[in-house]
Amino acid sequence: MRALRGLGVLAALLAALVAAGVWIVPGQLDWNRYRRPIEGFASAALGRPVGIDGEVKLSLLPEPELIARDVRIGEGDGAVAAGAIRLRVSPLPLLAGRLVPRDIVLADPRLRLPWPLPAGIALPRAPPSTGEGLRLRVSGGTLAIGALAIDRIDLRLTAGGAAGGFDVEGSAWLLGRRLHVTGRLTDAGADSSAGLTATVADDDGMSARLSGQIDPQGEFAGQIRLATSSFATLLPAPAVPFEAEGRLTFAGGLAAADALALSIGGVPGQGAVALRLTPALRLDLALAASRLDLDAWLRALGRGSALSFPVGLDLSAEAATLRGGALRRLRAAFDVTGDGLTLRSASAILPGEATIQGSAHLAASGALRGTAKLAAPDLHATLRWLDPALARALPDTVWHGARLGFSFGFAPEGLTLSGLDGSLDAARVSGTLSLTPEPALVARLAFDQLVLDPFLAAASPPVALDLVIDANRAETGGVVIDGFRLDAARSACCLAVHGLQGRVGGVAISLAGALDPDGRVTDGHFTLDGPDAAPLAALAPRVLPWRLPEPVRTALAGPVRLDLRAAGPPAALEVKATAALGPSTVALEGSADLAARQAHVSLRLADPDAAALAARLGEPELGAAFGPGKLAVKSDIDLSPTRLGATALAVDAGALHAAGTLGLSLSAPEPALDGDISLAGLALPLPAPGSAAPLPLLWAQGWHGRLGLTMGTLRLGALPPLSEVATTLRLAEGRLSLGHLTAWLGGGALDGEAALETAAAPPSLHVTARLVEAHLDAPSFGLPLDPASGTASVRLDLAARGYAPATLLATLSGQAEAVLRDGVIDGIDLASVAASVVPVPQAAGPAIVAPDAAASVLAAALAGGRTAFTSLDLAARIEGGRIGFDKAELAALFGRVTLAGGIDLPAATLDLHASVQPNGGPPIGLDFTGPLATPQRSTDLAALARWRAGQERP
Fold first, then answer.
1. 613/276 Cα distance (integer angstroms)
2. Contact 480, 504 (CB under 8 A)
3. CA–CA separation, 584 and 574 (whole Å)
4. How far is CA 437 from CA 273, 434, 443, 467, in A?
């Protein structure tokens, strides 16, 4: 036992000595002498020459390991620099001075490869088999290929073994993502190519598998299959499942995957990927799908890319959805960088069959800039998809089609379309549009032509407006406005018209002013200025519900100036206006209630020549009635939407002085005049009876009304004057009536009525009148036998048709009756006729004429003179302008006179036969023929001769 115990102690001692030797001796040895063996072994294991520039040391714990510093692997562009190479060796052979490596560890290797790979870089070949194969581990490695860097490489590589080749397993970091890698590279075959299979996965659920062949030039061709639960983890794309499978190649400096079969969120498609490593890292993808959710893509692209290098993306789809609408034939090419998103080109068919193409850049700050071209055959349908509120604001009757090119920008301060150029329907348009977040629409637009009516009738869009609109030619209500310009702004509370200008037929129009939140008008200013105001008549339908009478339209000819100013709250708006039309001037001053649409103003109208103004209104005869002198009109005017009233009206026109009230109703389709006017006196000329000039009847069309008239004196041509005249004029549907005329004529009461149908074709006139107990004091009718005095009662019922006085006279028809008492008639001396015919003295008669003088006295008495009569009864029929006497009898103290025949008024001729019968004597014929102004007078004494012959028989 004691011997055994001694052997045990000896063995322990020997073991301790060996252990001490293994621990102490290696530290005392120079291991650099193993530099060459280590270089040789590593070169054989790695298939590349290996050089060691640093020292070599041995570490025993936890297991023996030779550590060589500053290691070079390979030469030229494929050289690897490593911080150290650690060779794990078997300890007992090491004590015998032999290296039996078990593992190789490369610490911090750094490899930079040029891209594309230069010719001559060959694949590594597997080392001679060591049975189990050589295990190589890479720790903390870095690989740079062109601009692509892979770092924190930790791999376990097994070289050789029974299967040969290289097996790899480990992890590395690429573009900020940790990748888990497994793979196998086969030994190079007879053609010097090697097979490569690899699987790559990350922590976010992405996995990729590739397989293929690497040729001696380092080029790869094979297949790849990639899948991820969220496309957004790889690229700026929607967060939907993504799968891709297709061909993968590395050649010519380009890593490319093409003929890819894709599944994007379950939607099949095709695509291609290209990765460029020089001169800068860039990834390009082309994706084509049957349909795309473009909203999701735009959200993803708007967030930019988490990648540190540019990404190019080409998207195409036969169908896409955006903002709830369906797009077709979508093509879009994007560049995504750290600076933002660039849309190189895009095109699509939008809702409404609109086509759009353009390009844009979205900066990292969120600012968007680009250009686009739009062709929209149904602009309203496209706008309903894009912005329903904007579509509702656009009138339905305009801008159905559009062809526009523009630059656009979107930033936090709003959307802007600049450089706008194209057409809306047939109108050319250019300018700028901006929509700010308030929201507010800012427009600076220029048109070659613009129809305003649809916009005036449309509801205002629910946004603030800042507008500057120019149009070479604008139109509203059929009125053409040249050089139209609107500069206005409208907010939720206020409206400011900085300027509204244009020209209507050469008349310059301008408007400016502002409305505050309470509706108060500030600096309201409206002006007109032009050489001729006639074109302004075309504006009447936009302001009035009826057409201006033609004489008024005619009177608008001539220079015009208007200056209207307004200020104040809507319930008490102060207005002041001055206007000039030719030599006529108008001044208005007063107030208006805008809410009630009422106004009260004082009017002053002046013209230096009243007669000339009447002539401009198409009534020269009225101007003659005024006589020389100026026109001055003063009145208080009350205005509402339904009525225009003039009170305290005073008119001085030449010799005419009038006062009263007038009202014009505006509620009916035609204006209606109502009023009462009192005149001191009025003289009106009568048209020449034979005139063929049409009567001015147009003024009676387009309005109706009632006008009560009272006049101190009325003179109608050369007729005896009327006094204390009172009547009512009425106009309705072209019928002008003079109702219940009363007046005094020669001390007798006159009453009557008249009606002129101006709208009839031809116009017709009807007059009835009655005169009672009027006193004549002078010849009145210009006839050969003309009453010169007496008391007359007359009744008339006359009618005529025609456009001119001549035709009215030619169609005159009706009846006339007259009774005269105790008067004198010019044209015959019945007393001298009786004295020359009857030889027997008559009681209270003239002296007996001597027989030798009887003939000359009779001739003189029948040629002229005066006859006092007790009665003169007339009854006449008028047909076609010819007066035929049914009864014409004159009774006098010395005999009777009867009249037959007629007077042709249109021809101004007469054919009358008078039978003059002195008391107790025979009838004597007296004929009047020829022109009415100078009739021929002839006598028929045959009955007198026979009577005398009978008197001379015994």
1. 91
2. yes
3. 24
4. 40, 10, 15, 17
Cα separation, 729 vs 682, in Å, equals 15
The DSSP letter of residue 129 is P
Tokens of 724: 């204390």
| Alpha carbons 833 and 865: distance in angstroms, whole number | 10
Ramachandran sector of residue 568 (left: φ over 0; alpha: ψ -120 to 50; beta: rest): left
Range with the largest mean pLDDT of 286-300, 376-390, 473-487: 473-487
In whole angstroms, what is the distance from residue 612 CA to residue 626 CA? 10
- Using CA atoms, how far apart are residues 443 and 91, in angstroms rounded to an integer? 89
- Structure-block tokens of residue 209: 């598998």
Q: Is 945 left (phi over 0), alpha (psi -120 to 50) or beta?
A: alpha
d(C-alpha 13, C-alpha 2), whole Å: 16
CA dist 288 and 290 (Å) reads 7
Query: What is d(CA 505, CA 501) in angstroms, rounded to the nearest whole number?
Result: 13
Instruction: Give the tokens for residue 794.
Output: 């007359």
Q: Is the dihedral of CA 111, 116, 118, 124 positive or negative?
A: positive
Torsion sign, CA atoms 602, 607, 611, 613: negative
Report d(CA 243, CA 228) in Å as an integer. 7
pLDDT in tens, 848-859: 555 556 788 888
Please check whether residue 799 is in contact with residue 762, taking contact to mean a CB–CB distance below 8 angstroms.
Answer: no
Identify which of 307, 311, 310, 305 has the alpha carbon closest to the alpha carbon of residue 286. Answer: 311
Q: Hey, how many other C-beta atoms are within 10 angstroms of the C-beta on 132?
A: 11
| Cα-based angle 240, 338, 418 (whole degrees, multiple of 5) | 95
Mention every residue, 6+ apart, whose C-beta is less than 8 A from residue 944: 837, 921, 922, 924
- 3-state class (DSSP) for residue 628: coil
In the 8-state DSSP scheme, what is residue 404? Answer: E
* pLDDT over 70 at 817, yes or no: yes
Predicted pLDDT at 687: 80
pLDDT band of residue 843 (cuts 50, 70, 90) is very low
Length of the chain: 954
* pLDDT for the residue 341: 78
Say if residue 870's pLDDT is above 90: yes
Contacts of 347 (CB under 8 A, 6+ apart): 329, 330, 331, 332, 355, 356, 357, 358
Burial 405-434 (b: 16+ CB within 10 A, else e): bbbbbbeeebebbeebebbbeebebbbbbb
The pLDDT-based confidence of 446 (bands split at 50, 70, 90) is: very high
Higher pLDDT, 175 or 347: 347
Ordered alpha helix ranges (H), 540-671: 540-543, 550-555, 610-616, 620-626
Query: Which one-letter amino acid corresponds to residue 475?
Result: E
pLDDT tens by residue, 353-409:
999 999 988 777 767 789 999 999 998 888 888 777 667 777 888 888 999 999 988
864 is written with which tokens? Answer: 């002229």
Helices (H) and strands (E) in the chain, counts: 15, 51
Half-sphere CA count of 702, side-chain side, radius 13 A: 15
Pairing of strands 101-113, 134-145: parallel
Q: Residue 766 and residue 786: Cα distance in Å, rounded?
A: 26
Cα distances from 631 to residues 224, 364, 655, 664, in angstroms, run 103, 76, 10, 21
d(CA 848, CA 442) in angstroms, rounded, equals 113
Task: Round to whole Å and give the CA distance between 724 and 717.
Answer: 18
What's the mean pLDDT in 63-69? 70
pLDDT in tens, 488-535: 988 877 888 999 999 988 889 999 998 888 888 888 999 988 887 776
pTM given for the model: 0.60
In which element (H, E) is residue 926 found? strand 924-931
Q: Where are the beta strands (DSSP E) in 640-777?
A: 643-653, 656-665, 672-684, 704-716, 722-732, 735-745, 748-757, 764-776
The whole-angstrom separation of Cα 50 and Cα 354 is 68
